[in-house]
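PT: before anyone asks, these are the final sequences, not the draft ones from last week. 842 residues across everything. Please model them as a single complex and drop the result in this thread when it's through.
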Amino acid sequence: MTESDFLLEMNHISKEFPGVKALDDVTLKVRPGTVHALMGENGAGKSTLMKCLFGIYKQDAGEIILNGQKLEIHNSKDALNYGISMIHQELHPVPHRDVMENVWLGRFPMTGIGPFQFVDHKKMYADTAALFQQLEIDIDPNALVKTLSVSKIQSIEIAKAVSFNSKIIVMDEPTSSLTGNEVEQLFKIIRDLRKRGVSIIYISHKMEEILQISDDVTIMRDGKYIGTWDASELTTDLIISKMVGRDLTQRFPERSNVPGEVVLRVENLTSPNPRSFKNISFDLRKGEVLGISGLVGAQRTELIEAIFGLRSIAEGKFILNGKEIKIKSPADAKKFRIALLTEERRATGIFPVLPIVENTAIADLNAYQTAYFLLDEKKMKEDTAKSVEKLRIKTPSVKELIKNLSGGNQQKVLIGRWLLTDPDILLLDEPTRGIDVGAKFEIYTIITELAKQGKSIIMISSEMPEILGMSDRIMVMCEGRLTGILDQKNATEREIMRHATLYLA
Amino acid sequence: MNFDTKKLNEFLLEYAIYGVLLVLIIAIAVYNSNFLSVNTLRDILMQSSTRVIIALGAGFVLITAGVDLSAGRVVGLAAVISGSMLQVADYSRRFFPNLPDLPIWIPIVIAVLAGLIVGILNGWIVAKFSVPPFIATLGTYVMVYGVNSIYFDMKPNESQPIGGLRPDFTVIGSGSIGSGPYSIPYIVLIALIVAFVVWIIFNKTKLGKNMYAIGGNINAAKVSGINVGLNLVMIYAIAGALYGFAGVLEAARTGGATNNYGNMYELDAIAACVVGGVSTTGGIGTVPGILVGVVIFTVINYGLTFVGMNPYWQLIIKGLIIVSAVAVDIRKYISKT
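LR: through. Structure below.
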């Protein structure tokens, strides 16, 4: 191919941080009008590479060429002006303002005479409506952003990128909080953009999606460029083996747990919120992994947070080992040896500025209390060190701040936190979300191991292969209702989807 | 090479606060070498003592990502309460003309309890009603001043400054172990003991760990089964008790009290914490940092007066230090995310 075949070229990019070579001679060449997947485990250097593209970091070596022209990008505003925009994984809209203000933020159309300039709301509305029509996005420009779903807000972000006449749009894990239908909608927009010659750099961990939507795939590992392939030449296994640098014979560990007697019976659990879960009854057995599947909005998180006492219930009973119990707060749940790993690791899991020791011991401080209200710090450190070793947490020391660890290792610290409380029942909400493939396998191994030890696990997951590969039984929810409990042996993706969409119009 | 300069930068940012203190002292000493003396040191430590106790209280609250504006008014309340009950028997304008000589600890405990109650009130409003700490403590700030003024205005005192404090009380504020230049003032010793106790609470107790956790991520704290409300009430209560104790010491140190004692002390305390590295976004802060923060401000007050600088210029320098300290703190935060 000649030079001009590429819209964007990032050639021989290197970037070094104190002690780490984050990028080592990385190359990324994006053809016009294509979806280019950028893949690699967490820590492979994808975000660093993108930060160089946006001028957030300055690369130590290498060049960035757009349309055959070498660029100097000093900040994200430069990048925007060159026609490069990014849809972040975590969206940051202004929730209390309306849609059109969010789209044109910082560049409102003005009208008026001489020095008396006012925001031209009419034009702003018309421009927004035209933009949305062009992209076939069905959102009222006057709606308040806080009333919209995540997928709609994402559409707004994409529209905003298009309004900058962006030639390159980077999407970082765009489907991480979308439902099946919404993903389809997003893909429709992406295909449409591709037709207009816009190139998408698509960052995702979801193999199925990558194979479905992308044209080219570039894979990175440990800050190095591994290669670029035509997506049609690749399979899930091929991608994984290139990402982890070894052949991955299996994605899920061998399971040898044997579910026993019923430990927890949930009867007729109903939320006070009429739009949330209602009339949920199920059994959880000793040594069982019970998967909960469903689309976003199925109220799965709400359900298990209620079991943990984080949300109140209007009706329903918990029967633990044959005895009815009341769970009114997380402290109650802990007392009954129930643990919860939340979905939002950053928002409700880690204490970013605290060391691993504190992050590990915080849910079980009573165990370390000595006479005179002091804490046995030595024991805290010992237990943390044991947890670090047992769960194979990669960290220089137990005193490292947790925010400096990768997502997978943070998640392992949180699992370690709850294991210290010696729970019988673990509630895991999307335990592998945003975690790279290698670490995922380790977390699966931990879950399997725990089930083998006789602990009961309820695991919410939106990833079909994960639910099918890890659960003994699969409970499916739709719109707050339980639509079926399937046995793993005869569960299929189709069957789960049928139950998950049972009450959807 | 690149590596080294980055490390150096990080080091400088991390310890900037100590650098500032050193530069201040050197600059003042160059101007007037008499500044470097044992007497100066003792004066600075003495003047820092009550401020340290108030700042430690403010630190508790700041680390939970809150703020406590009621501190200064609680100092005033405790000063007036303790002073009103500890006057010499033959003083002509006694607050309680017929009050017998109480054991000294009774009025002190009452004054500290008053602070504790205000603290509990603060914590309760914040935890129970989710009123932002800034507003909750602004409310109690005004109320405490009102309560204190009513008490202070009671007959027969009618808002006369309280004086004639018992010497066995004032000796706490002005006495010392030994005499001469190498004596150790009681008040400095008391402040050090309080600082040590607070250090233990911060680092060695469940409450301390919970405090850092609540400030670091309040939602994660809830999910971890921490009773956030109860912990907040306890933290504000301890803070209130510390302000109360500081108020008692202020009365003892100055030998008197009025309802305006402690006015605006909360701002000095917050500034000292912030300069001492307590993060305004919560979860970060140490006792040694707070101590250095307080001492820096005392050095500025004392040192710049010592060299005869116009007091208005001192204000400008103080303000600059507050703002740059936070700017540096934020840079630390940004560089690490």
